[in-house]
From TrEMBL:
Similarity comment: Belongs to the transaldolase family. Type 3A subfamily.
InterPro entries noted in UniProt: Aldolase_TIM, TAL/FSA, Transaldolase_3B/F6P_aldolase, Transaldolase_AS, TSA/FSA_arc/bac
Pfam family, one: TAL_FSA
NCBIfam families attached to this UniProt entry: fsa_talC_mipB, PRK12653.1
Recorded superkingdom: Bacteria
CDD domains for this protein: Transaldolase_FSA
Name of the protein described by the UniProt record: Transaldolase
GO CC list: cytoplasm
Organism: Tolumonas auensis (strain DSM 9187 / NBRC 110442 / TA 4)
Length: 217
């Protein structure tokens, strides 16, 4: 089982990594923009925080395959171990093929259907990231997508691994893990909700009150 954090917030990653077994950090352009630091600063800072043995992901923004490949190579000059996220479009599939021949590890991202992800896997992606909450928000089923995708990969592209992404609730995380998914990336707020809840706080407060009423300080 692998947990990743979908964030570039150094303080939050450090805080959560103390009690969660984090395998690495995933980012996308929105996450990097929110952090306010360009990739040239953000990626080295994230690498320095997570250390050399963890996995770091960053995404290309170009539209054309040729430009995606150049961008991926530039990103790897910032972090030699970087896994490059490539949106699974027709151009993205071409880029994934070309990056495979250059030995650059890729993750097919912006996945909204099992077949889309299978094509990324067949093009040479090592990971694919179905967007669980965004699929749910469209009226689909993110979990069903993950389940069907897992069957497809097992049958047709066993080299490729699902890294389920886009979670908004702990229930989505639980359902995804129960469906057999073994790698997920979580935004900070959802990761925190896995351990924090008002009910837990209220229970502990009540235990403390009862103890102090009976025995004093
Ligand atoms: C992962 O590849 C995506 O960048 C990310 O998980 C999307 O999550 P969001 O739907 O919460 O923005």
């Amino acid at each position: 089982m692998e947990f990743y954090l979908d964030s570039a917030d150094l303080n939050a990653i450090e805080r959560l990594a103390r009690f969660m077994p984090i395998q690495g950090v995933t980012t996308n352009p929105s996450i990097i923009a929110k952090g306010g630091k360009p990739l040239a600063q953000a990626l080295p800072a994230l690498r320095s925080l997570i250390g050399p043995d963890k996995i770091l992901f960053a995404q290309v923004m170009a539209d054309k395959a040729e430009d995606m490949v150049k961008e991926a190579e530039q990103l790897q000059t910032l972090d030699h171990q970087l896994v490059v996220k490539v949106p699974v479009t027709a151009e993205g599939l071409l880029a994934i093929q070309q990056l495979k021949t250059r030995n650059i590890t890729t993750l097919g991202t912006a996945v909204y259907s099992p077949m889309q992800a299978l094509l990324a896997a067949l093009a040479g992606a090592s990971y694919v990231a179905p967007y669980v909450n965004r699929i749910d928000a469209q009226g689909g089923s993110g979990i069903k997508c993950v389940q069907e995708l897992q069957q497809l990969l097992t049958l047709h592209a066993p080299h490729c691994q699902i890294l389920a992404a886009s979670f908004k609730t702990p229930r989505q995380v639980l359902d995804c893990l129960l469906a057999g998914c073994t790698s997920i990336t979580l935004p900070i707020d959802v990761a925190e909700q896995l351990i924090r809840s008002p009910a837990v706080d209220a229970a502990i407060t009540q235990f403390n009150q009862d103890w102090h009423q009976a025995f004093g300080a």
